[in-house]
Q: What sequence folds into this?
């Protein structure tokens, strides 16, 4: 299984922290956020990675290189400016991702989720859902009685970790595209399995939440 790590965002809410470097290279526990994911993916047996780039992407490429020092191989999907958003970024990267299901990981989260849970498992496609954090109290998606993602309450928050299939994006034109309408369509077809995770997970979207992640890392 391959994985795509989403790293093209600008990180505007981080203020001066991302004025000269991209958010995926902000450090938690002395390690860039994106490196945490690369190392955890490698430990889970996922060694073929695709990373999309836009804002200051040359810095990310320079830090990770071809992935050899982390025990992985990395291909890059260059989006230019502005970035293509999540859905559009995945569509552009499809030729690099191949024909099999692939993992998706947002680079701007900090989590102890075990990616091996999704590798070779029966849940395809699937979303990882976590308890609602304070910044998203109303949640995103529910879980029905069959363990599928639903639109019904009670709702949990999409963790930015998923397994998708190329078929979910087949035939879509290149260009900017949000992910949520594609997820809503898959939910309507009852195609998305749900994976609940109640462990350490933080959306590192603001300086305050970056500090929370750093405190969480310090407790490990």
A:
């Amino acid at each position: 299984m391959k994985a795509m790590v989403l790293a093209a965002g600008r990180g505007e809410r981080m203020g001066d922290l991302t004025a000269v470097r991209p958010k995926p290279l902000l450090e938690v526990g002395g390690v860039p956020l994106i490196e945490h994911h690369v190392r955890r993916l490698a430990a889970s047996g996922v060694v073929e990675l695709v990373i999309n780039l836009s804002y200051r992407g040359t810095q990310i490429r320079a830090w990770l290189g071809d992935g050899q020092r982390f025990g992985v191989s990395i291909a890059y999907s260059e989006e230019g400016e502005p970035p293509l958003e999540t859905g559009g970024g995945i569509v552009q990267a499809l030729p690099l991702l191949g024909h099999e299901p692939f993992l998706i990981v947002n680079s701007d989260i900090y989590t102890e989720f075990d990616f091996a849970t999704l590798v070779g498992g029966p849940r395809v496609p699937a979303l990882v859902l976590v308890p609602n954090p304070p910044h998203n109290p109303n949640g995103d998606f529910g879980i029905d009685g069959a363990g599928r993602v639903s639109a019904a309450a009670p709702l949990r928050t999409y963790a930015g970790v998923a397994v998708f299939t190329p078929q979910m994006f087949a035939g879509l034109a290149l260009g900017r595209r949000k992910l949520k309408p594609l997820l809503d369509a898959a939910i309507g077809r009852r195609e998305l399995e749900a994976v609940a995770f109640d462990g350490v997970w933080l959306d590192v979207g603001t300086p305050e939440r970056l500090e929370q992640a750093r405190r969480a890392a310090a407790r490990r």
